[in-house]
Amino acid sequence: MPSPMMLADPKVESQLRQLGFGYRAKYLHQTAVQICQKENEKWLDNLRNPESPVLGQKVGTAGEMQPGGRAGYRAAHGELLALQGVGPKVADCVCLMGLGWGEAVPVDTHVWQIAQRDYKFGKGKHSSLTKATYDAVGDRFRSLWGKEAGWAHSVLFTADLRVFSERPSAKMGVKTIKTEGEDLAIDATLASGLVAGTKTEVVETKVKRELEADRQDGSAILKTNTRAKRRKHL
How far apart are CA 106 and CA 88, in angstroms? Predict the structure, then answer.
């Protein structure tokens, strides 16, 4: 990862645009310049959660958890908001993934919808994603998962993406796994009879597998024979 000093070079913005960063190129360059202008060269590191220090540093304490997060997290979030082009969500992404503040919850409309749908976050006065709504969603997640709210949010966000939420249709099949000296045939899915209204056909398969465990104490060879009978369901 380039250092802030490297990103502060005047040529960086045009190079980033060539790489496809678009409008973000300007913000990345200007933010790097702002960081380099800080009197304290360790300004960014000082925003880190002391419970998640950089390699080689001693682990510290970060204080008591509050509904809005620990004091260090709130201070770090506020400092990041002063940088060029950094809004609440970007600041929370940096706090969570770069500075070790696990309670940081990056909120967008997708996360807001998850909170409403699955965690009884009523619309009420939160009819749009305002600053108050942003904070309220984060507080709701923190009330559920405390210091790990940000990582719980990341799992929920990812699981709700279409590419992960879609499930393949129920099919039956036989998959062959190559082992030493023999083939092992197993079902590709679970028992088909559980899927109502589907027609499935399962063949009878004989499976013989030998597992050899060579031990230094000369114990006997372990052999396992498995016979799987499968019926035809219509």
Answer: 7
Q: How far is CA 154 from CA 93, 99, 106, 170, 191, in A?
A: 10, 16, 9, 28, 33
Q: Which residues, 6+ apart, have CB-to-CB distance to 164 below 8 Å? A: 158
Q: Are 94 and 80 in contact (CB under 8 A)?
A: yes
**Dist CA 88 CA 73 (whole Å):** 13
Contact in structure between 204 and 229 (CB atoms under 8 Å)? yes
- Determine the Cα–Cα distance for residues 8 and 32; give it in Å rounded to an integer: 5
C-beta of residue 103 within 8 angstroms of C-beta of residue 69: yes
Give tens-digit pLDDT for 23-56.
999 999 999 999 999 878 889 999 999 999 888 8
Which amino acid is located at 65 in the chain? M
What gap in Å lies between CA 233 and CA 230, rounded to an integer? 9
**Which residues are marked as active site?**
89
161-217 pLDDT, tens digit each: 876 666 554 444 444 445 454 444 444 433 334 344 444 343 333 333 333 434 444
